Amino acid sequence: MMKSRKITIGLPVVVCVLFMAFLLFPKDHSFGKITKTELRFGENYINYVVPDQDTMAFNILGVLKSDSSLQDLVTSVDTNNPNIKVVDYKADTGTEHKGYKLVNIILTIEVLSDDIEKADQLLIQFNNEEPIAFDMGLMVIQNDKGFQRHHLEPTGNYNVGYPRLELDVILRNISSQSLTPVKISDLTNFMSYHFDNNVLIESKEEEQIQIERFDVTKRDQYDFMTLTPILEYTINEETYRYNMPGVIYGILDQDTKKIEKILD
Asked: Is there a single domain that holds both residue 69 and residue 126?
């Protein structure tokens, strides 16, 4: 007669096994998950004119708790607007400060319509599980079909990065007629600057545009901004729009300062 045997584990062994399990799987992200308490994004503002049928890369900055990791976990990134297509992405972590790591998700974007498209969430998938929606600020994108590219061009050293919302550029009138600048804004008039009526850029002449302060709908609303300054101007009383090269605000700050902005 065969006797049945029971397998028993003494208490010290059980404790040891449980402790080893805790070491191996200390948080949910060990099973392929990152929670919203571990990862969050700053108030990123992207308002940009993208070349038609082309792509553009943008930085989305956030923070991750220092004891967490994104390595090999992110399997897809998208936005909550199907007309803003993410064709590629890269998730990096960097400087640690105040218990958090700086996160930079670089999105390569293609816009699939001729309209102004908006998105305010990143849909991040970890280890092929259900995507998690993270607030990222606001992305406003449009292609460049409605913009004029044959009257103006930047010249000299074009300043791309600024610590605050200002602008210092030199534009050359490459048309055969004089033109009158009216205002500089973005796609949604979040920021704007109106020129005096006596500003005139003659044909083949240059004009330095220095703006120390824009009018904004809400100051200090965003931590980091990537913008296309849009110059509205007239030639013979006909209105045109020129999308200047993009500029960034706050993204070149020290990493520790960026982390503090996001945590505030």
From this structure: yes
